[in-house]
Amino acid sequence: MSEAPGARFSLSGRILGAMFVLVCVMYGAALGGLGLPLIDRVRTQLQLGAERELSALKTAIQDEVLLRDYPAIEQTIRRRVDQSHLLQASYMLRQVRIEAQSPARAGNYPAWFAALVQPGPVRAETRLDIGGTSYGSLSVAIDPAPAMQDLWALGKRFTLLASASLLVMLVLMQLLLTRSLRGLYELRLAARAIESGNFAARARLVSGSPPEVRETKLAFNHMADHVGKLVAALEHEHAELLVEKERLRVTFESIGDAVLVTDASGLIEFLNPRAEELTGFASEEARGKRVQEVMPLIEESSGDPVVNPLEIALVRDAVVELDNHTLIRRRDGSTIAISDTAAPIHSVDGRVQGGVLVFQDETERRSLMQRLAWQAERDHLTGLWNRRAMEDKLTAAVYSVQHVPRHFVFCYIDLDRFKLVNDTCGHRAGDALLQRLTAIMARRIEGENHYLARLGGDEFGLLFIDATLSTALNQIQALRDEIGRFRFEWEDKVFRLGVSFGVTELHAGHSDVGEILAQADTACYHAKSLGGNAIQVYEKTHPALQKINDEMQWIAVITRAFEAHRFVLFRQEKVALRDDVVARHYEVLLRMRGEDGVIISPGEFLPAAERYGLAPSFDRWVVRNVFAYLDTHPEDTACYALNLSGRSLSDASTADFILEEISRYHFDPTRISFEVTETAAIDNLDTCERLILTLKSRGIHFALDDFGRGQSSFGYLKRLPVASLKIDGDFVRGLDTDREKLAIVKAMHTLAHELGKETIAEQVETEAELACLKAMGVDFVQGYLLSKPAPLPV
Amino acid sequence: METTLKSLIFAWALFASALSHAAAPYAFGVLNQRSLQATAVYWNPILNYVSARSGVPLELHIGRTANETTDRVVAGRLDFAYTNHLFTPKRAALGWRVLARQDSRGIRGQIVVREDSPARSLKDLTGQSVAFPNPYAFVGYYVPYDALLRAGVRVTPLFSGNQEAAMGQLMSGQVAAAGVNHQVMADFARRNGLKYRVLSESEPYFDLAVMASPRVSEADGEKVRQAFVGMIDDPEGRRVLKAAAQAIGLGKSRGFVFADDADYTNYRAFFRHTRVPVNE
């Protein structure tokens, strides 16, 4: 930038220069304003002088002219010329010419002055007419030199006076400025001291300095105070910023996310180590390059280039997230799946200063997500679709059926006697069996129009898409035959499996997936009840299926009763036949009160509840209420046995729930025991074992209910650490007359005692039965003979 | 219109006269009764008129004093003269003839004092200074001084140079009385507001006469006479006379009338009997 004209001149120089120019201008103006009129005046005076001289000479020679005394005239003219400033005087009358001259005086002034003023000889002339007669003419020329000399002297005095005034004024002004500007010099010194880092420097206040300078110094000092504070604050903030910067640097370098920073034009400024690692570029190498050069993005599936989101973010001035299916092509040509977020960096005033791109290596996560997605829909053991995936398919199928004329057939598949494999050969064998069967089924029904899923345990679902019922049944028949021909060998054992199929055809009247599953399940249940390895198509009017269906109706009734608190607790005493048992023992029973107030026996609603998953809720409701009863009725010192359903046994959180509920009350937990059915225990052998062991540690015992009803073997008694066996009522009733029953009960009792477990005979209804049991040495008896169920006295 | 036409004709005549006689105009001397300036202012227009009318070019010539003017007459340097100094015995012998005179009832010699002067008669002037124009003035010196001498009053005569100078000394109190021409005195007193008292007055004498030198031909002399005399009858001549009179402050203009030597017999008689020594 060029310096402004005059910028090199100091303030003093400018003021003095301005004054000098001003005075010179004023001098010139005064000289012009006064001198020119003066010159005119001099000229006028000279002219007047000439006129006066002429008049005087005329007067002087007038008589001589009348007398025609020419010598006298000449004498008078010469005398006049000699005595005055006349350069020349002449009298002319016809042939007579009388003239006198005197040399011009040398003026003591320069020629330029004479040229400037240029008055020249001033002439005056007059005619001598008296009484109408001409006596000739008279002329004079006056010497301007004396007047010029006076004028020159006056000009010199004026100039001298002006020069002297100017000099005095400049000196005084210089003194004044020096004194006044001293304060500014001190301000400058203070400013330079502050500039060099001495923020304590201040302008010294001197008495006698002009108020403007003093006020300026005060303002400067106040500003310096403020600047000092600001600098201190800035230094403090700077230190904090350095710490923050270091923290950010360390963070950038240590965080797992890759960070790329650009300027506002999209040129890279910085890569953190993770970004260097992912892109293959060092930060220094990448600096100044465009983002697309360092981390070219491509679409995962097509390989097409993808516009870098940071460029979009800078253009839109908004946060932009990258599409999930994006790869970065590294410097070495390899690709990495990434996810990233690009955002503009704003300054305080909102302007875009640059952009930041944060991206992560999504390879593992995307792989994990794919695995999770797979797992969410797949059964990990068989690789088939899982229950949820099947439910989704069924939902879509129901929707499709309701809107377009398509045909879907759903088949519920349940393996017969699968537990036998598990029980005899262990779970590994069971798993291997499932995998083999799955492979058979999958191979058999290959094609896009089939959808095979494992719904749980040994249950499978098969959805036929765009297939008629007959077509589906043909395939199901073929599948059953193939499975029937299959022999599963495990170690030295060979198993032959049966499969039960429940089939239902989807139609527009289906309201939801649950209904379809229920129909297929009902049909399958019926097929299984027929002996297994059968195919049952759901028919609404089928009596057996209708019964099963009725159970389903109970679900709504049970749910309403549960919500309306119409469940009540009953108890039935278990009478000890031994003398050493002091405390009384009860079994807690659940009853439902109908909407009309009539008590409904559990045989009516419990199967449906267990079948449709409501049993755990009942179990927990019973636990809470019995525990609360025990806590609020300390006078009741009896022991209570609570029933746990198979679903609760399979729920790993049941133990925690019970322990947490116990912890809320203060009764002795050893007064509590649980009864689990043999079937339920065996179905959930592992979790049941863990539950029993967990609660046993708190003194809570378990009884194996309905022992003998199931198909299990005595081997389970070895694994299940139960304290007692409840002999199923079917064996108890009539044992006094049925020798086989008596033998079985004896065997059970003997075995239990041999294993250190107590025995409880239920459904004792006659004295004869009681006598047999007493003779046998059974520990407890329970039945209508001794005690009928009665409400818990709450 | 007529006046303008006549002025043009007169200007043409004046121009023609100037062309025909440019080489030798006659010298017309005028006796110094007033200052040189006043004399020139009064007489130059008249002479220009007369020259134009008569065809005889005339040029005004004045001496520094009346005596000098008379000396020029005597020396023969003048051709015409307006004077009354040529009636002394010796100068009458020069042969100058009278052509005309101013139309007045004549002039008188007076002894005057300021009105506030204590002098009531000539006797009261005894021993006082009395101003006279010059020792050649007829009614200004010879006539009043003759009266003083005849009255037996001895005074100290002071000669001022001309009539008005003597009156000026009287006015300023430098002299007790002055010998004056009564007509000039009246004009002076009117112009300057001077109040005066006449102690003695002579018989009337015709004023100065326009006289011609013997070397002026009869014809030229007659032309000049006719021109002077005809002025009063010529409007242009009257205008010139009026302007000349106004130029020197005269109350009224006077024309010229025919005159001859017989009109000035009393002059010659006075000089034969006067007690005042005649300066010739």
What does this entry look like structurally?
The complex is a heterodimer of chains A (794) and B (280). Helix content of chain A is 51%, strand content 22%. Chain A is of the alpha+beta class and 794 residues long. Chain A has four domains: 157 residues, no CATH class; 114 residues, Beta-Lactamase; 159 residues, Reverse transcriptase/Diguanylate cyclase domain (Alpha-Beta Plaits, 2-Layer Sandwich), CATH 3.30.70.270; 237 residues, TIM Barrel (Alpha-Beta Barrel). In chain A, helix 1 packs antiparallel against helix 2 and helix 13 crosses helix 14. The radius of gyration of chain A is 64 Å and the shape is rod-shaped. Chain B has 280 residues and is α/β, with parallel strands linked by helices. Chain B folds into two domains: 171 residues, 3-Layer(aba) Sandwich (D-Maltodextrin-Binding Protein, domain 2); 93 residues, Periplasmic binding protein-like II (D-Maltodextrin-Binding Protein, domain 2, 3-Layer(aba) Sandwich), CATH 3.40.190. Chain B has ten helices and eleven strands. The radius of gyration of chain B is 19 Å and the shape is globular. The N terminus of chain B is likely disordered. At the A-B interface, helix 1 of A face helix 2 of B.
